[in-house]
Amino acid sequence: GDSVTQMEGPVTLSEEAFLTINCTYTATGYPSLFWYVQYPGEGLQLLLKATKADDKGSNKGFEATYRKETTSFHLEKGSVNVSDSAVYFCALSGRFSGNTPLVFGKGTRLSVIA
Amino acid sequence: ETGVTQSPTHLIKTRGQQVTLRCSSQSGHNTVSWYQQALGQGPQFIFQYYREEENGRGNFPPRFSGLQFPNYSSELNVNALELDDSALYLCASKQTGTVTDTQYFGPGTRLTVL
């Protein structure tokens, strides 16, 4: 079945450091790929998405590129802020399939210190 | 545009009891999914409803059941609660048939089973 593997955390960075959170996936066909963020005590917020190979999703300074050849969707940010401290989830779903649920990775906790 | 809302925010039950959680979909969305997020884990798909019928189910026992109403709001019912049912329950809605099939999540209901 479909699956998502994320780098294990926690990840601790100083403010303004470069962030990479690795994500690889296993899926049949051509899934859509997502990054969701969960702030303490809250639900999930969609951070960015990509629906086909070589697409780059971006939002709030975060970027991720859909790499079909390496089945990866790594999250990057050039300079993190304390407010980026949260848990980040990589996820996939089948394209054009109404009943395909999201499959999540286990999440990566990011802590940014001033 | 109104986002996904869930009620209650928190709930404490004892083992063997029954619980009902509620979700109002984002305006214009016709599909609702429920996920269970155990502490420190990624969300796991429970089931999905489209046009008031279940059209996808994850690896959860029949004591997890649901409903979707004509206004696309939804309920998750769990019977014979077990200690392991303690988790954050997330509702997500989307508009099936669109290209991106993006799901938007509510803030969740935190259920504690004692």
Structure explained in plain terms:
The complex is a heterodimer of chains A (114) and B (114). Chain A is an all-beta fold and 114 residues long. Chain A is 0% helix and 49% strand. Chain A has strands spanning 3-6, 11-14, 19-21, 23-26, 32-38, 44-50, 56-59, 62-65, 75-77, 86-93, 103-104, 108-113. In chain A, strand 7 (56-59) and strand 8 form a beta hairpin. The model of chain A has no long low-confidence stretch (mean pLDDT 92). Chain B contains no helices and eleven strands. Chain B has strands at 5-7, 10-13, 19-24, 31-37, 44-50, 53-57, 64-68, 74-78, 87-94, 104-105, 109-113. Classes of the chains: A mainly beta (114), B mainly beta (114). Chains A and B meet through strand 5, strand 6, strand 10 and strand 11 of A and strand 4, strand 5, strand 9 and strand 10 of B.
Q: Number of helical segments of chain A?
A: 0
Q: Spans of chain A with pLDDT under 50 lasting ≥5 residues?
A: none
Note the overall shape of chain B.
Answer: globular
What is the CA-based Rg of chain A, rounded?
14 Å
How big is the Rg of chain B?
Answer: 13 Å
Helix content of chain B: under 10%
Number of helices of chain B: 0
